[in-house]
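Late entry, written up from scratch paper. The run itself happened at the end of the previous shift, but nothing got recorded in the book at the time, so transcribing now.
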Amino acid sequence: MNLYIPAAALGVVLVVKLPALVRRRHSPVVRSVNAVIFLQAAAFFFSAPPTIGVVNRATGVSNFSALLVYCVLSAYACACRVLMENWRGDVEVLPRTRRRVRRWIWGHGVVALLLIGCFVWGEAPVERQRDFETYYASTPFIREMVLLCLFAVTAAAAAAAAACLRWARDIRSEAPERRTPADGLLRVGLTVLAVGFLTNVTYGAAKLAAVVAAWSGRDWEPLNQVAVSLAGLGTLLVAAGFLIPIVGPWLAARVFEPLRTLRALGPLRRTLGGVGAPQGRMRLPTPWSACPGRRLTDRMTDIHDRMLELGAYCSEEVRARAYAEARRTGRAEAESVAVGLAAMFRAASDARAHGMPADQDQVVPAVRALRAAEGEYRDLLVGVSRALGSVPEDRRGGTPASSGGAALSPCDG
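Output as recorded:
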């Protein structure tokens, strides 16, 4: 696995987030997120064999890069735990959160000092760029350094995974009326984080197994290399887990919601553009590369144009009767208004197909009711499009007969 690829990807993410770090440098969560990303990138960069050789030659100490990577991994494990504490708690008002953060920092600081001590007391004269752990598995003090780092990283990853799963479970157990869309994205992000941390646990376990096998004279170096791939996968999952709650709301507002609305408007657009619609008319061109928001704007413009073309066939009697029946069946006001307009457009489309324009006395109040509803209800067109599927069959063929004394909606003006 080319370790420079995930290092470069994380470096790009760090550069993108750098302005937020400058603006919100006093926020513990922002600082923790950037620390996790930076240490992830550093771990991959300094673990790459070419970098290992450069570091060892620059320092003049064989395998100094191994100590550097181990210290970075320990700091990364600490940063992940600190981020989890800061993310869930409010370090400004919760002394317990601050105490837990300090304990994690001090604990991993001690681990880093022990790693340095073991490296100084041990002897590793032969440079090993790919199999340092298994080659020195039986060397005094170097062996302890390897085991200490692997245990620290694996334990921190397991604790972080457990914390993520507990937090996700707490969110899921909340009352439905108290949940928000942000809670759903947070729960997904926590689940992905837990999987990523568990992958890091698997990485530590694979490394430990290769080291233990080396003690008994068996060569499990391929397992050691598989562990490197697991580390890359775990890193990507952890990065995705952190980004989902942050980027998710933006994606929901800019991508998923427009796409969902575009799909919901399909029935209304097809109804308005049925048989008898003007052919070859000018339409607002939408570039193939347009974002969902731009496509939705163009679709709404097209629908309004089609509604104007169909205006001469709209009947107030059809709309008023459908509205009254919807209210009698117990539907809400907004839903009843949408049902009335859906029935009106369905009948108008059929009337246009048969070349039967509505009376002018029916058109003017129908258009007035439509305009009043557009000003009052925010997602009116989506409601009308969805209501088209509930319009009874007897309203789908031609302009219905007049129904004297039909109840009118408050939108009649």
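The radius of gyration is 32 Å.
(Scratch paper discarded after transcription.)
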